[in-house]
Amino acid sequence: MLDIGPLELITLVVLAVLIFGPDNLPKVIQDVSRTLRKIRQFSESAKEDIRSELGPEFKDFEFEDLNPKTFVRKHVLEKDELGLKEIRNGFDFKAEMSDLTDAVHSRTPEAPPATPDLLKKQDRPAPGERPPFDSDAT
User: Fold this and answer.
1) Are 12 and 4 in contact (CB under 8 A)?
2) Residue 18: in which H helix or E strand, if any?
3) Domain spans of the chain?
4) How much is the pTM?
5) What ranges does the record list as Basic and acidic residues composition bias (predicted)?
6) Are 74 and 65 in contact (CB under 8 A)?
7) What does the buried/exposed string (b/e) look like for 118-136 if buried means 16 or more CB atoms within 10 Å of the residue's CB?
8) Where does residue 106 fall: left (phi above 0), alpha (psi -120 to 50 degrees), or beta otherwise?
9) CA pair distance 63, 52, nearest whole angstrom
10) pLDDT-derived band of residue 7, with 50, 70 and 90 as boundaries?
11) Helix, strand, coil: what percent of the chain each, to 5?
12) pLDDT tens for residues 73-130?
């Protein structure tokens, strides 16, 4: 419920005993539980008042549906009137992207990409022969 582990719970109990003392702790627990109960009752009565004011068509209205994630999950993803699951399952995005990449780089899908072997030793010019001149590099 509150994602409190056993060690954290023990720490909270020890702190409560140290702060309120062992004599006052039962009364504090009763007061806190009574306050939480009143807050829940107030919340439920407010929800019922809102439902009654909205009318009979909203009698099964849940306030959790106002959360956008819950609303989308309930009205769009569960019904699937548009066949979105079928469309989504019909696409293989990885294959589509690799085909697109191959088309951009003008590669055929059968041929592996031509990559230069950078570790291969380059041919050196013969003695007395000049290396090729690259005007862009100078």
Assistant:
1) yes
2) helix 6-54
3) 1-61, 62-108
4) 0.42
5) 118-138
6) yes
7) eeeeeeeeeeeeeeeeeee
8) left
9) 14
10) very high
11) 60, 0, 40
12) 777 666 655 666 666 677 777 877 888 888 888 766 555 555 666 666 667 777 888 7
CA dist., res. 70 & res. 63, Å (int): 10
Whole-number Cα distances in Å, 51 to 62, 65, 67, 87, 109: 9, 14, 17, 38, 61
Q: What local confidence, expressed as pLDDT, does residue 109 receive?
A: 55
Contact 61, 52 (CB under 8 A): no
Tokens linked to 26: 């039962």
DSSP string, 37-101: HHHHHHHHHHHHHHHHHH-GGGTT--GGGGSHHHHHIIIIITT-TT-HHHHHHH--HHHHHHHHH
Q: Is 105:98 a contact under the CB 8 Å cutoff?
A: no
Nearest by Cα to 25 from 13, 11, 43, 41: 13
Cα angle 16, 17, 19 (rounded to 5 degrees) comes to 65
Structure tokens at 113: 């990409």
Within 13 Å and on the Cβ side, how many CA atoms surround 68? 0
